[in-house]
Amino acid sequence: MHRRRRTAFLLTAAIAAAPLLTACGSDAHPGAAAVVGGERITVSQLENRVDEVRAAQRAAVPDEAQYQQAIARTGSLTRDTLHGMVLDRVLEHAARDAGVTVTDREIQQMRSGLEEQAGGAEGLEAAWLQQYGIPPQRLEENLRLQLQAQKLAQRIGTDTSRPEFWQALSKAGKELDVDLNPRYGDWDVQKSSRVDAKTPWVREVTAAAGAPLTL
Predict the structure, then answer these.
(1) 92 and 147 in contact (C-beta within 8 Å)?
(2) CB 3.0 to 4.6 Å from 93: which of 73, 130, 136, 172, for a disulfide?
(3) Region 129-140 average pLDDT
């Protein structure tokens, strides 16, 4: 994924159909999908986030055929969601180190502007779900992170498409010592991105169409 495309909305999951990964072997951190700054993102937390998206997709497209199409378009949702959860923490760490804060008023102002563009609150929620895999209950949380990214870039005298911004995230990732469970891939500190693990005992299993995502 190109940096310029990622930074259009930095902390949203890229939705693309892809096989699931399952791993055979012991985890360095049992029950953890990732460890960031010594704090665990548990498999249960990850699965709950994925379930939120699936429930929102089902509510948005009650037609079974359309729902199956949404499932097919988001086959890599589990890994993309974990990528977003880790990157959220990396950004928050970088923003905190830079003294960046975001107020509730700024979030509401951003939301109001986006709702106007989208034709209302429902239109904005539908767009965020369809384009970025963000369910309605996570919308303001995501907007806070978008504002953190913008303000962090301004604080260091750049914008989110420039190398200097990504270097700040890389520094934060190193400080947090991001460690992914190999079944979900590896964390590329330089790119601040999840990448597929090149591990011989990781095998790919394609999910059946419409089946729940389980790892």
Answers:
(1) no
(2) 172
(3) 93
Tokens of 207: 């999910």
**Looking at the predicted structure, is the pLDDT value of residue 175 above 60?**
yes
pLDDT over 70 at 196, yes or no = yes
Of 200, 201, 62, 51, the closest CA to residue 133 belongs to 51
Whole-angstrom distance, CA of residue 75 vs CA of residue 20: 8
Residue 173: give the domain boundaries.
3-205
Q: Which of 149 and 131 is assigned the larger pLDDT?
A: 149
What is the arithmetic mean of pLDDT over 73-89? 90
Is 120 inside a domain boundary? yes
Q: Where residue 129 sits, what CATH number does that domain have?
A: 1.10.4030
Pairwise CA distance, residues 98 & 121, whole Å: 32
Q: How many domains does the chain have?
A: 1
213: in domain: no
Contact 133, 77 (CB under 8 A): yes
Q: Which helix (H) or strand (E) holds 13?
A: none
Q: Give the pTM.
A: 0.76
Q: Please count the helices (runs of H) and the strands (runs of E) in the chain.
A: 8, 7
Residue 145 is assigned to a structural domain of this protein: yes
The conformation of residue 190, written as its DSSP 8-state character, comes to: T
Cβ neighbours around 20 below 10 Å, total = 18
